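pasting for ref
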Amino acid sequence: MCILDSYEKADFLRVRNITLGYTFNARRWSFFKGYMQSLRLYVDVQNPFTFTGFTGDDPEIVIASSMLSGCNYPQLRTYSFGAKIIF
């Protein structure tokens, strides 16, 4: 059970999702000519930044857990990458 000893300012700014991607036109490259039409590479990051002066783990969880009986975990930071190939 979470017990809050004192109150503090819990304002924050959170970046939830960043996705960067680029699509290569494989028809322009002689190496891929005839094998594929396009190639897309991307990187995705979820919850990369939280800007706050709060001293705890996650200011959003403290607000939510004060309404609930138990403690919650802070949001996870997730990295993923991938490729999409069109033949």
